[in-house]
Amino acid sequence: MSKPVLMNSFSYLTDQQLRYVWLILLWTQCETAPVSHSLVVSVQSPNLVRLGLSATLPCWLNPPQNAEDLEVRWYRDNYDTPILLYKAKAFDDTQQDASYAGRVSFGLKDATSGGLKTGDVSLKLVNTTIQDAGEYTCYITSLQGYDSSPVTLEVTETGRSPVLSAVRTEDNMVNVSCESEGWYPQPVLRWSVQHKELKPKSLLFNKDSSGLVSVHSWLLVPSSSKVSCSVVLPNKDTREATLLLDFPPQPVGTAGWVAFAILLVAALAALGVMCYKKKVKKSKQSRDKRDAAGEPLLPKALANKNYVNVKLEDTDTPFLKIRNNKLRDTTYNNVPEGPRVTCRTAVKGSPGFTSGQHYWEVSLRYSDRVDVKQSWWLGVTAAREIPNDYNFTPNTSDGFWFLSSSPDRADSFQFSTEPKVFFAFTERPSKVGVYLDYDKGEIYFYDVVEKSLIGSLAATFTGEVFPFFNPGRGDTSPMEILHREEQNQSSNNAGPPEKTSDGTGQNQCSENVGCGGETAEAS
Questions:
Q1: pTM above 0.70?
Q2: SS3 breakdown of the chain: % helix, strand, coil, rounded to 5?
Q3: Neighbours of 410 (CB within 10 A)
Q4: Cα–chain center distance at 421
Q5: What is the Cα–Cα distance from 397 to 353, expressed in whole angstroms?
Q6: Alpha carbons 332 and 518: distance in angstroms, whole number
Q7: Can you say whether the dihedral through the CA atoms of 378, 383, 384, 389 is positive or negative?
């Protein structure tokens, strides 16, 4: 029998020398990176990420092996144009897909991972785009073999809350449309009337230049209905708007129509958004002015630049108590209107406005020892004198544009419109910012603490308008018009000092909504 080749090669060595050779070979085998002769790649898929955030695509060797000396290639459609290429213990970007330059690196599949030393070659991708959605391949090569496995990345974006628009038809029905934009992938739209799901009359989808999807649908409902429109992603992210219609019947053939639009935030957000217009005009808001819930906010710089220290008008009404910047109702039990809120507790502010943009804030909660006000009116009026008639019901046609809250409706706000339209909310605001754009004919109401838009009204102003306040009836908390120090208003770029708020009527500044002055002592 012939001897092994290895023994023939070392036949000239002594026994002691051979023992040294075997020890060296054994030591070399032990020091070599523990890579299996058969590579097995494991992945986790699919992986979900919000547009613009970072994603990790998990990929690892199973069982765990040191991957520091291996070649790792991540690619999509073209093997020769990798997203990430690691070889010879270094990254090679000479043939990298240009769209991923500066956005990829190795990540960790979980918090306990040891990285490359334990065979974790997961891909970390930052600043995800819609184009990043799809299938990726994790490919690992060694001198002994190779293996690969596909990984799917799903990119999503939750769009804006639906805009509900309503137009009354001549047969006492209401044509309600629902629009929402900024979604990815294509969402599902559902209608419900009186909590019963209905199929829409039409359903249209459009995609903008960035790849985001908008949806538009409409249906006919009775003139007194509770209508809800929800837009849902496959991962269950939802935006929903609810509209309470209360149109009085009109004679058949009556000329004219009324249209309004209402926006409500999703169930995850604090408040809704309403927009009333005689003829609805779609307003474009830049995506970089949204909060996490997707709603447009008033930029802090704009609030600071246009902040006005509104002063309350002197009044001799026995139904109001005014001290400094605070006002509240007085106790009158035997009045014809009973507990109903009327103009007898309303007051104007100064200065008046005939052009430009103006912003002021009102506190509706004095401290954490008392509840947030439930009864109030806030807005503007064109009236030179506030009527002292308790039978007078102010509305937009009389030159009163305001948002109101009533304890009789614990789940909804109302604008001073005819016909009456109510819209739901989940939490009463403790501080409201009022932004008047006289030139555009728009007035916006913001929840300053929650950093969200409550709603907006559109109007045509033809003369001087004044801030308008009503502290309502029966609340423990007074209403306070917040003032700032004059130097904070002297510069367009100067903002108020950064503060925090506990929602108790103290100041709270944010990057998107301005803040008012210090809360004064209780009346």
A1: no
A2: 10, 35, 55
A3: 10
A4: 24
A5: 19
A6: 31
A7: negative
